Each structure stands twice: as structure tokens, then as C-alpha cells.
Amino acid sequence: xxxxxxxxxxxxxxxxxxxxxxxxxxxxxxxVIGKGKALDMIxxxxxxxxxxxxxxxxVSNVVPQRELFDTAKDKATRIVQKGPLAVQxxxxxxxxxxxxxxxxxxxxxxxxxxxxxxxxxxxxxxxAFLEKRTAAFSGK
Length: 140
Fold this sequence. Notes:
By secondary structure, the protein is mainly α. Helix content is 57%, strand content 7%. The strands form 2 sheets. The protein has a two-stranded parallel ribbon. It has a two-stranded antiparallel ribbon with strand order 2-3. Helix 1 (25-33) packs across helix 2 (35-44) and helix 5 (84-98) runs antiparallel to helix 6. The protein starts with a strand and ends in a 10-residue tail after the last helix. Belongs to the enoyl-CoA hydratase/isomerase family. It comes from Aliibacillus thermotolerans.
């Protein structure tokens, strides 16, 4: 999840320094926006404006600059109210399953789900839902 202000510019200019983007920049970018557009950005050093970055899926939201912090804070607040183990597992399953074939990705998902079904947080979440109250997750 990436949120950008409407005046954001995103780019990779490492080739100007005679190096390539590191920390997975070449691999992650090409998987998000496609090989051709990633090569274009990397080789030319040209920047994407926020709206084009959203169209390409590089950012999920574009908001006015004055709303950027509050938007990010609101999203983070919504996430931390969820079961922490489920949040960790969801991230792991999406990230590891994304580059795997579908059968492998589904096995990863099923294993994660099986682990979560045995947690105190799952029991608390279900009970809170039935009692129409906010869950008090313990991370266990």
C-alpha cells in the first residue's frame, strides 16, 4: 500500500550515478508496473507524476498534500485494529504467494489459515463479532 500526495514525483535516478537501483528496486518495480515501463523509468531516469503512478498501480491512493499524513494515519489506525497475527500472515501470504505459481500460493494461504485458526486472537475475534463488540487482540 502506497499513498502519494497529488504533487508527488516518483523515479529511479541511480543510473545518473553509474549504478543501478538496489534493494530490489529493479525487480519490484517491474513486477508492479511491468517490465517495459520499469525499464523506461530506470534507463531514462524520468519521473512519474502521482496520477500516472496510480494508473500503473505503483501507488494505491493519491490525495492532496494537506491530507497525506491524515490519510496514512487513518489507514494505519484501521490496520492496527485488526488481529496482529492475521495482519502479519496476510502480508506474508500475499508477498510470498505473489511470485509463486497458483497451486503453491494456495498451499501457503491454506497453511497460514490453519495456523491462525488455532490462535487466541481468532477465538477473540469471533467472540467479539458474535457479541457485537470491539475485539481485544493479544497477538497470541
